[in-house]
Design brief:
Oligomer: heterodimer
Helix content of chain B: 40-55%
CATH topology of the largest domain in chain B: Glutathione S-transferase Yfyf (Class Pi), Chain A, domain 2
Structural class of chain A: alpha+beta
Radius of gyration of chain A: 23 Å
CATH architecture of the largest domain in chain B: Up-down Bundle
CATH architecture of the largest domain in chain A: 3-Layer(bba) Sandwich
Strand order of the largest sheet of chain B: 2-1-3-4
Shape of chain B: globular
Number of domains of chain B: 3
Largest sheet of chain B: 4 strands, parallel
Order of helices and strands of chain B: HHHHHHHHHHEHHEHHEHHEHEHHEHEHEH
Number of domains of chain A: 3
Strand content of chain B: 5-15%
Largest interface: A-B, 39 and 34 residues
């Protein structure tokens, strides 16, 4: 077993873990991050993409609201390419308590969430699809965020500062010497090789899986995995984040993110963050609630449904999961449980990941005697290679923020329209190549990097094309590399394709009606009837060591 | 975004990305500058946002021929999405001088036609002048500009003696080309309608606005359409049908203008419902047993091209149905997608060659037909066919008038 040595081992490749590993590296600490899947494979890659203004929490969770308001402003400065300035409305529909409007506005002011009431006429001018029966509208600085790109942005910066990031590595053991955690054993899921990681400190940032990690150190942490189901509609019928102006509930928000509009969410306690389904009644509820905001909502094409699990930290008994604070909690296990060398960062939300990382790293820095200040609020982040280079002209002063037309403007600028691999999401061959070169090992990794397969056809046309590119590039790389690089055969390529088809299919099944049913039938004709993909199951079972379905 | 934009945007949801439109698109087949209907239509639409700058330019290479709409298996309104997107570009960036001018067929026609027309035509036949126009105006020096007429259709009609003892009335919508360039088409139409017992009424009318629509000037097009509605409505209200010989003008009155401009008043709908392409109208007469079928035989075969705009009427091919009644006459349908001119598209410097390449299949067909005359319902298509083949073209109504011995 190989041994590596580091100051801090960060567990979890979501927003929090990546924020932590970057902050650690920026302060000059040696840091290694392990993630059992691809980056953002957990909750980070499965949320609706809201950059919170804080408005959702002003009444029930004022501390979270203020944190969100501050972080919102910071993130716009340091990672503009990951954020779209959509703005957000809180609207009072006929189904909501009209008296909450004044409470909401007052609480916004108390929690430093910028708010302004606008007229219904102005709302309809900007968003004509909204329900004209809405009686009051409050505007807040909500936005939408690309959590995949943000993760890779953090990872790129962290690596530049010397951090090491190991994906598809699972923690199998935490080694304690007395009351001190001193090392971890991690396993590469692709090769089954194990590595012994000696470390001064372990930062548990495993989100909904944090309880499982803590248990490896003999510490009890109760994280309630709160399942949130979302439905993506195939185009943006609104370009502003639309929230119901009421206490947070199911199906009360529509987030325009990239080319889709996501309605969310439910909040259902699930015992295991790895085992959950999407129930038809959840999808129905989302569409019914959507109707209240956008009349005719359920007639739009639903693209896909999915769910993520919120890492809600349960301090004491709380009757309703929605009543658990959305703020984060840093658990110092030395003080709490008498176990040194490990802390857990639990709860929180994407918008506050940077603040969570700062707090966690402050604690570790103090413990390790590092006195360098946190700079993540000021230093702008680099843009990963696979991101669009062009298309930056969303108006004066906003050049660097993402805007909806950016991918199209970039393709037009480069005249790349003849070389699109994923046509729905405008992913050119160059960007797929860049994603593979940056380490994407299967099609789902490529999807997270460049949005390949996430559009209306759900991969109907790009899956086989991307498979071919993956095969060409990986087989070539394997040929050029020395013998320790594993071979990449046609079986691996076929397994990757089948794996991804299966992933796409999972999200399609809950919304199989109308246009999407027609689409699924065409996709079936392509993959089953033309390509005979169903005969590749033997290849998929082999998995090729590159396709891990950690379930 | 208004009602029509919402419904158009919703139609993009029907796209299953099948690429049937891209395979059928005559423009994408001949140039890399046009990425195809799927890309510029339902695909690009997901990236457009009324409150943000227009992200794309390539949609301007859509000729508007509507082949994509015809072949789409799921009913996506691709052409309408594209016309809207172009209008957004124009609204944001303004319209080039060239497009402002060629979009105003009526104004250009009024200035060119009349007793001085031979002089205008002579000038336009001079190669150096055409090169000059290309430099200044970006209108291709070889583009098929029609010769202006030395008299206008309306001046002819004023002097025209109507046939006595008629029972029925019909409104004739002549459009700009008949008025200023091809009065003979209108004369033939009047003769045919009178032969069938109609008093032909020619009310005040303006350009249908199609060139403005296809060049993206929606506000001006709206003005044109409402002007026509105002002047046609009194007749439509009395149950008098409106017929036109320009199949693109009639399509605009029926469908294009109301749909693209979001005009859905009762008046607009009444005019749309009361408007007919002339052969559609004549075929209706025939089906009602009211068409005079005493034709002189014409022992000829002609190549016939049903233009894109006629196919968009979704009325089948009424020319074949009606002219098929003429003894001895046989028309060979072109089965070509498009002649390439697409109104003003193929006249533009940067699009001329694309238009010629699109039309190549049709030109080959017409030339192979071994006829000194070809037939087509749309004026700009006739000019393009003549330009591409050197063979004269006529409106089918002229042949029908001939069959009546008129």
């Amino acid at each position: 077993m190989q041994t590596i040595s580091t100051d801090v081992l960060v567990i979890g490749g979501g927003a929090t873990g990546l924020g932590c590993v970057r902050d650690l590296a920026m302060r000059g600490m040696r840091a290694v991050l392990v993630e059992k899947g691809d980056l953002t494979n957990g909750t980070t890659g499965r949320y609706h993409g809201l950059l919170h203004s804080g408005g959702r929490y002003v009444t029930k969770d004022p501390q979270s609201a203020t944190e969100c308001a501050h972080e919102n402003a910071i993130l716009r400065r340091v990672m503009p390419h990951c954020l779209e300035d959509t703005s957000g409305f809180f609207v009072i529909t006929p189904w909501d308590d009209p008296s909450y409007g004044d409470i909401f506005a007052t609480n916004c002011r108390k929690t430093e969430v910028p708010v302004q009431e606008i007229s219904v006429a102005e709302m309809l001018r900007r968003e004509p699809a909204l329900n004209p029966q809405i009686s009051r509208v409050f505007e807040v600085p909500d936005g939408s965020a690309d959590s995949f790109l943000a993760a890779h942005t953090n990872a790129l910066s962290a690596r530049t500062y010397g951090a090491q990031i190991l994906t598809y590595h699972r923690v199998v053991e935490l080694i304690r010497t007395g009351d001190h955690v001193v090392a971890a054993v991690v396993e590469d899921l692709r090769t089954s090789e194990r590595t012994y990681v000696e470390c001064g400190f372990i930062l548990n940032a495993a989100g909904a899986w944090a309880g499982q990690i803590a248990a490896l150190a003999g510490v009890k942490v109760t994280v309630v995995p709160g399942k949130g189901t979302m439905v993506a509609m195939s185009h943006r019928m609104v370009n502003t984040v639309i929230n119901r102006c009421k206490l947070p509930a199911d199906g009360d928000i529509i987030v325009p993110v990239h080319t889709v509009a996501v309605i969310g969410t439910t909040d259902i306690h699930v015992p295991d963050p790895d085992v959950y389904g999407i129930e038809p009644h959840e999808v129905r509820l989302m569409l019914e609630e959507g109707e209240k905001l956008v009349p005719g909502f359920s007639q739009y094409r639903a693209l896909r449904a999915w769910a993520g699990v919120r890492p809600l930290y349960k301090d004491q008994d709380v009757a309703n999961d929605r009543d658990i604070s959305r703020t984060y909690k840093l658990l110092d296990h030395q003080q709490r449980d008498g176990v040194d060398g490990i802390i857990s960062m639990v709860g929180g939300k994407w918008t506050t990941y940077r603040l969570m990382a700062k707090d966690a790293v402050d604690t570790i820095a103090q413990r390790l005697g590092n006195t360098r200040p946190c700079r993540t609020a000021d230093e702008p982040m680099p843009v990963p290679d696979f991101e669009h280079r062009g298309g930056n002209h969303a108006g004066a002063g906003a050049e660097k923020l993402y805007w909806l037309g950016k991918p199209l403007a970039a393709v037009e600028e480069e005249h790349a329209y003849g070389d699109l691999i994923c046509e729905c999401e405008l992913v050119s061959r160059d960007r797929v190549h860049a994603a593979i070169a940056s380490g994407a090992s299967n099609l789902d990794d490529i999807r997270r990097d460049v949005r390949m397969g996430m559009g209306p056809c759900q991969g109907g046309w790009c899956i086989y094309r991307t498979t071919a590119l993956l095969y060409e590039q990986r087989a070539q790389a394997a040929e050029n590399a020395s013998a320790d690089r594993p071979a990449f055969d046609i079986e691996h390529a076929n397994a990757a394709m089948l794996h991804f088809l299966q992933e796409r299919w999972k999200g399609l099944t809950p919304v199989l009606w109308g246009d999407q049913l027609r689409q699924a039938r065409l996709d079936e004709l392509i993959y089953v009837h033309v390509l005979g993909a169903h005969r590749l199951s033997a290849h998929a079972e082999q998995g090729g060591g590159l396709v891990t379905d950690e379930r | 975004m208004n009602h029509i934009e919402i419904s158009l945007t919703q139609s993009l949801d029907h796209c299953i990305k099948c690429n049937v439109c891209t395979s059928a698109c005559p423009v994408a087949a001949v140039t890399d500058k046009f990425p195809g209907p799927k890309y510029v239509g339902p695909q690009a639409q997901r990236f457009r946002h009324a409150g943000q700058p227009v992200p794309d330019d390539s949609v301007d290479y859509c000729s508007g021929c509507r082949v994509c709409n015809e072949v789409c298996p799921t009913g996506v309104k691709i052409v309408e999405l594209n016309a809207r997107a172009r209008a957004q570009i124009v609204a944001e960036r303004g319209m080039p001088l060239r497009n402002r001018i060629i979009a105003r067929a009526g104004v250009v026609g009024r200035l060119s036609s009349g007793p001085h027309a031979p002089l205008v035509n002579f000038g336009l036949s001079l190669t150096p002048l055409r090169w000059g126009i290309e430099q200044v105006m970006q209108i291709h020096h070889d583009a098929p500009l029609p010769p202006a007429s030395s008299y206008t259709f309306r001046s002819w009609f004023k002097k025209h003696q109507p046939v006595a003892g008629v029972r029925k009335q019909v409104v004739y919508y002549h459009g700009c080309s008949t008025q200023y360039y091809e009065p003979r088409v209108g004369q033939a139409a009047v003769a045919v309608l009178e032969r069938n017992g109609y008093e032909v009424i020619i009310p005040k009318q303006g350009c249908c606005g199609l060139p403005l629509l296809s060049n993206g000037d929606f506000p001006a097009a709206k003005g044109r359409h409402m002007y026509n509605v105002e002047h046609l409505l009194p007749y439509v209200r009395r149950g008098i049908p409106v017929v036109g010989t320009s199949t693109s003008c009639t399509l605009t009155l029926k469908e294009e203008a109301p749909e693209l401009l979001d005009l859905h008043s009762q008046d607009v709908r009444a005019v749309a419902a009361g408007t007919y392409d002339i052969f559609e109208f004549l075929r209706n007469l025939y089906e009602a047993g009211e068409l005079d079928t005493n034709f002189l035989p014409i022992q000829r075969e002609f190549p016939y091209h049903p233009p894109c705009q006629l196919r968009a009427h979704r009325v089948g091919l009424p020319v074949l149905d009606v002219l098929g009644l003429v003894p001895g006459l046989h028309l060979n349908e072109s089965h070509a997608e498009c002649c390439g001119i697409a109104g003003t598209y193929g006249m533009k410097k940067e699009k001329y060659q694309i238009g010629m390449d699109v039309g190549a299949k049709l030109f080959t067909f017409v030339k192979a037909a071994d006829s000194d005359l070809a037939l087509c319902d749309s004026e700009t298509c006739r000019w393009q066919i003549s330009h591409g083949t050197g063979i004269a073209t006529k409106h089918p109504i002229e042949i029908l008038a001939q069959a009546y011995g008129l």
